[in-house]
Write a structure and sequence with these properties.
Keywords: Coiled coil. The chain has about 210 residues and is mainly α. Among the domains are: about 60-120; about 120-195, 2-Layer Sandwich (Alpha-Beta Plaits). Helices cover about 65% and strands about 5% of the residues. It contains 4 helices and 3 strands. Helix 1 (about 5-55) packs antiparallel against helix 2. The radius of gyration is 36 Å and the shape is rod-shaped. About 10% of the residues are buried.
Length: about 210
């Protein structure tokens, strides 16, 4: 799997984490609402009972009905609390599992990139023929540079891709080239030759 695919999968997992967090927040808010509703109903029931007692119109049946009503509300609240607690625990467990996967993917991406960078070299100062230089043109420039350096046993087939990258700071110089080889041996040959050849290369040789 390419690092691009790994990053995409990692982003999908992180999106799932955010979705689960939102779900957890909703459950918590529903629990608060249920508690507030039950408390409000209980308060209204108590006020009604007190008013009835005051005007001496509350009979035993009405009192029993009020007790049953409050008991049912309490039972419903307890059922909701238990279910909400279970849901929160399950979501938390899944969040932990997904977070662990995200960490593993991030580590895999970093390792893959480190391994990939072993095949890369960054070349500065090569004239840029045009603003929209193709990868094929850039690779050909690299081959001319390598030949001028005296490296003759590295071919175009040894280059995976070559492309320009934007400089970190604005500059009038040509953009640097990133040249990625398909084998590390080719890179090592170029790196071994650069110390002795770069000072003697002229723009006419490129």
């Amino acid at each position: 799997m390419t690092t691009k695919k790994l990053r995409e999968e990692n982003e999908l997992l992180r999106s799932e984490i955010e979705g689960l967090k939102n779900q957890l927040y909703k459950i918590s808010e529903d629990l608060k609402t249920q508690q507030a509703t039950a408390a409000s109903k209980s308060s209204r029931t108590a006020e009604a009972k007190q008013a009835k007692d005051t005007i001496e119109r509350t009979n035993s049946e009405e009192r029993a009905e009020a007790v049953v009503f409050m008991s049912k509300q309490y039972d419903d609240l307890e059922v909701f609390r238990k279910q909400a607690t279970q849901d929160i625990q399950q979501i938390t467990k899944k969040l932990d599992s997904i977070s662990k996967k995200c960490d593993e993917i991030t580590e895999a991406i970093e390792l893959a990139e480190q391994y990939s960078y072993q095949y890369n070299i960054k070349i500065m100062g090569v004239p840029q023929l045009n603003e929209k230089e193709s990868a094929e043109t850039t690779a050909s420039l690299c081959m001319k540079l390598f030949t001028a350096m005296g490296v003759t046993d590295v071919s175009l087939q040894d280059i995976d891709i070559a492309h320009r990258v934007q400089s970190r700071r604005p500059s009038q110089n040509s953009n640097p080239i990133i040249c990625k080889f398909v084998r590390r041996l080719a890179k090592e040959k170029i790196m071994a030759a650069r110390k002795h050849a770069l000072d003697n290369i002229t723009p006419d040789q490129l």
